[in-house]
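A note from the maintainers: we've had questions about how concatenated examples are separated. There is no special marker in the raw files; a new sequence line simply starts the next protein. For clarity in this README we add a label.
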Amino acid sequence: MKPAVVNLTIYQGSTFMQEFQWKTGNPAVPVDLTGYTARMQIRPKVTDPTIIATLTTENGGIVFPDAVAGKFMLEISAAATALMEFKNAVYDLEMIMPNGKIKRLFGGTVTLSFEVTR
Protein backbone atom coordinates (compact mmCIF):
# COMPACT_ATOMS: atom_id res chain seq x y z
CA MET A 1 0.00 0.00 0.00
CA LYS A 2 1.33 3.39 -1.03
CA PRO A 3 1.58 6.06 1.72
CA ALA A 4 -1.33 8.49 1.75
CA VAL A 5 -0.84 12.23 1.22
CA VAL A 6 -2.16 14.21 4.17
CA ASN A 7 -1.35 17.93 4.25
CA LEU A 8 -1.31 19.59 7.67
CA THR A 9 -1.74 23.15 8.92
CA ILE A 10 -0.17 24.28 12.19
CA TYR A 11 -1.53 27.44 13.78
CA GLN A 12 1.39 29.33 15.32
CA GLY A 13 0.89 29.87 19.07
CA SER A 14 -1.86 27.25 19.33
CA THR A 15 -1.62 23.65 20.45
CA PHE A 16 -1.54 21.43 17.36
CA MET A 17 -3.68 18.32 17.83
CA GLN A 18 -4.75 16.04 15.01
CA GLU A 19 -6.37 12.65 15.48
CA PHE A 20 -6.30 9.85 12.89
CA GLN A 21 -7.64 6.34 12.57
CA TRP A 22 -5.71 3.75 10.57
CA LYS A 23 -7.99 1.36 8.71
CA THR A 24 -7.18 -1.19 6.03
CA GLY A 25 -8.95 -3.79 3.90
CA ASN A 26 -12.22 -3.93 2.02
CA PRO A 27 -14.38 -3.29 3.90
CA ALA A 28 -11.98 -1.14 5.90
CA VAL A 29 -11.39 -2.24 9.49
CA PRO A 30 -9.20 -0.55 12.13
CA VAL A 31 -5.59 -1.74 12.53
CA ASP A 32 -4.90 -2.78 16.13
CA LEU A 33 -1.96 -0.58 17.13
CA THR A 34 -1.24 -2.37 20.40
CA GLY A 35 2.53 -2.63 20.76
CA TYR A 36 3.23 -0.15 17.95
CA THR A 37 5.41 2.94 18.23
CA ALA A 38 5.51 5.84 15.79
CA ARG A 39 7.78 8.66 14.65
CA MET A 40 7.45 11.77 12.55
CA GLN A 41 9.74 14.64 11.53
CA ILE A 42 8.99 18.02 9.99
CA ARG A 43 11.78 19.50 7.83
CA PRO A 44 11.99 22.56 5.55
CA LYS A 45 12.47 20.17 2.59
CA VAL A 46 13.16 16.46 2.22
CA THR A 47 16.93 16.84 1.81
CA ASP A 48 17.37 19.51 4.51
CA PRO A 49 19.27 18.37 7.63
CA THR A 50 17.35 20.93 9.74
CA ILE A 51 14.59 19.37 11.84
CA ILE A 52 11.71 21.71 12.68
CA ALA A 53 9.97 19.19 14.95
CA THR A 54 10.23 15.54 15.92
CA LEU A 55 7.16 13.73 17.22
CA THR A 56 7.45 10.22 18.65
CA THR A 57 5.57 7.96 20.98
CA GLU A 58 8.61 8.23 23.29
CA ASN A 59 8.48 12.05 23.54
CA GLY A 60 4.67 12.23 23.77
CA GLY A 61 4.21 13.88 20.38
CA ILE A 62 2.33 10.81 19.15
CA VAL A 63 -0.12 9.00 21.42
CA PHE A 64 -2.51 6.10 20.93
CA PRO A 65 -5.75 7.11 22.72
CA ASP A 66 -7.47 3.92 21.46
CA ALA A 67 -4.86 1.56 20.02
CA VAL A 68 -7.30 -1.31 19.50
CA ALA A 69 -9.49 0.95 17.32
CA GLY A 70 -6.44 2.13 15.32
CA LYS A 71 -6.61 5.69 16.70
CA PHE A 72 -3.55 7.86 17.19
CA MET A 73 -2.99 11.57 17.78
CA LEU A 74 -0.26 14.04 16.87
CA GLU A 75 0.41 16.87 19.31
CA ILE A 76 2.75 19.89 19.44
CA SER A 77 2.52 22.32 22.36
CA ALA A 78 1.43 25.94 21.92
CA ALA A 79 4.83 27.03 23.27
CA ALA A 80 6.59 25.02 20.54
CA THR A 81 4.35 26.25 17.71
CA ALA A 82 4.83 29.85 18.90
CA LEU A 83 8.55 29.49 18.12
CA MET A 84 8.00 28.12 14.61
CA GLU A 85 8.87 30.47 11.74
CA PHE A 86 8.69 28.40 8.55
CA LYS A 87 6.09 29.03 5.85
CA ASN A 88 5.92 25.57 4.25
CA ALA A 89 7.65 22.33 5.17
CA VAL A 90 7.39 18.58 4.59
CA TYR A 91 6.87 15.59 6.87
CA ASP A 92 6.18 11.90 6.98
CA LEU A 93 4.89 9.56 9.66
CA GLU A 94 6.18 6.03 10.19
CA MET A 95 4.59 3.27 12.26
CA ILE A 96 6.92 0.74 13.83
CA MET A 97 5.25 -2.63 14.24
CA PRO A 98 5.90 -4.86 17.27
CA ASN A 99 8.01 -7.14 15.02
CA GLY A 100 10.26 -4.19 14.05
CA LYS A 101 8.90 -3.70 10.54
CA ILE A 102 8.36 -0.06 9.54
CA LYS A 103 5.42 1.27 7.53
CA ARG A 104 5.36 4.83 6.19
CA LEU A 105 1.68 5.53 6.71
CA PHE A 106 1.44 9.03 5.23
CA GLY A 107 3.24 12.30 4.61
CA GLY A 108 2.82 15.60 2.87
CA THR A 109 3.26 19.30 3.38
CA VAL A 110 2.94 21.37 6.54
CA THR A 111 1.80 24.98 6.32
CA LEU A 112 2.29 27.35 9.22
CA SER A 113 -0.53 29.85 9.71
CA PHE A 114 1.11 32.84 11.41
CA GLU A 115 -0.30 34.14 14.68
CA VAL A 116 -1.64 37.69 14.79
CA THR A 117 -2.64 37.80 18.48
CA ARG A 118 0.48 37.50 20.66
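[label: protein 2]
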Amino acid sequence: MAESKSRNPFTPADAAACFDDPHWAARYPPILNVDQAAALLQIPKATVYAWSSQGRLDRCKARAGKHLRLHRDRLVQHLFEGKFHG
Protein backbone atom coordinates (compact mmCIF):
# COMPACT_ATOMS: atom_id res chain seq x y z
CA MET A 1 0.00 0.00 0.00
CA ALA A 2 1.31 3.48 -0.83
CA GLU A 3 2.24 5.82 1.98
CA SER A 4 -0.21 8.60 2.66
CA LYS A 5 1.58 11.92 2.30
CA SER A 6 0.19 15.24 3.34
CA ARG A 7 -0.56 17.32 0.27
CA ASN A 8 0.26 20.48 2.18
CA PRO A 9 2.82 20.16 4.95
CA PHE A 10 2.69 23.96 5.53
CA THR A 11 0.65 24.36 8.73
CA PRO A 12 -1.11 27.37 10.26
CA ALA A 13 1.71 27.46 12.83
CA ASP A 14 4.20 27.72 9.97
CA ALA A 15 2.24 30.65 8.55
CA ALA A 16 2.29 32.46 11.90
CA ALA A 17 6.00 31.73 12.35
CA CYS A 18 6.76 33.66 9.16
CA PHE A 19 6.00 36.81 11.14
CA ASP A 20 7.94 36.08 14.33
CA ASP A 21 10.50 38.71 13.36
CA PRO A 22 9.31 42.10 14.76
CA HIS A 23 10.11 43.85 11.46
CA TRP A 24 7.76 41.58 9.49
CA ALA A 25 5.14 41.58 12.24
CA ALA A 26 5.06 45.40 12.16
CA ARG A 27 4.99 45.58 8.37
CA TYR A 28 2.30 42.91 8.06
CA PRO A 29 0.01 42.92 11.12
CA PRO A 30 -2.45 40.06 11.72
CA ILE A 31 -5.26 41.94 9.93
CA LEU A 32 -4.19 43.43 6.61
CA ASN A 33 -5.69 46.09 4.42
CA VAL A 34 -5.64 45.56 0.65
CA ASP A 35 -2.39 47.51 0.19
CA GLN A 36 -0.60 45.36 2.76
CA ALA A 37 -2.01 42.12 1.36
CA ALA A 38 -0.96 43.07 -2.17
CA ALA A 39 2.54 43.95 -0.96
CA LEU A 40 2.82 40.69 0.99
CA LEU A 41 1.79 38.60 -2.02
CA GLN A 42 3.70 40.88 -4.45
CA ILE A 43 0.68 41.35 -6.67
CA PRO A 44 -1.37 44.38 -7.79
CA LYS A 45 -4.22 45.57 -5.56
CA ALA A 46 -6.59 44.92 -8.46
CA THR A 47 -5.70 41.23 -8.27
CA VAL A 48 -6.62 41.12 -4.57
CA TYR A 49 -10.00 42.69 -5.38
CA ALA A 50 -10.52 40.35 -8.34
CA TRP A 51 -9.74 37.26 -6.25
CA SER A 52 -12.12 38.53 -3.58
CA SER A 53 -14.90 38.99 -6.15
CA GLN A 54 -14.23 35.52 -7.54
CA GLY A 55 -14.58 33.97 -4.08
CA ARG A 56 -10.94 32.88 -3.89
CA LEU A 57 -10.39 34.75 -0.61
CA ASP A 58 -13.58 33.76 1.22
CA ARG A 59 -11.65 31.97 4.00
CA CYS A 60 -9.35 34.95 4.47
CA LYS A 61 -11.47 38.07 4.18
CA ALA A 62 -13.92 40.21 6.08
CA ARG A 63 -15.54 43.55 5.42
CA ALA A 64 -15.21 46.53 7.74
CA GLY A 65 -17.89 48.75 6.28
CA LYS A 66 -16.88 49.11 2.65
CA HIS A 67 -13.25 48.19 3.36
CA LEU A 68 -11.82 44.76 2.68
CA ARG A 69 -9.64 43.26 5.42
CA LEU A 70 -7.64 40.06 5.17
CA HIS A 71 -6.39 37.70 7.85
CA ARG A 72 -2.62 37.54 7.28
CA ASP A 73 -1.97 33.98 8.48
CA ARG A 74 -4.96 32.54 6.64
CA LEU A 75 -3.88 34.39 3.49
CA VAL A 76 -0.39 32.86 3.65
CA GLN A 77 -1.85 29.42 4.37
CA HIS A 78 -4.24 29.87 1.44
CA LEU A 79 -1.28 30.72 -0.79
CA PHE A 80 0.56 27.54 0.14
CA GLU A 81 -2.57 25.45 -0.40
CA GLY A 82 -2.68 26.72 -4.01
CA LYS A 83 -6.16 28.21 -3.67
CA PHE A 84 -5.41 31.22 -5.88
CA HIS A 85 -5.07 29.30 -9.12
CA GLY A 86 -8.15 28.97 -11.28
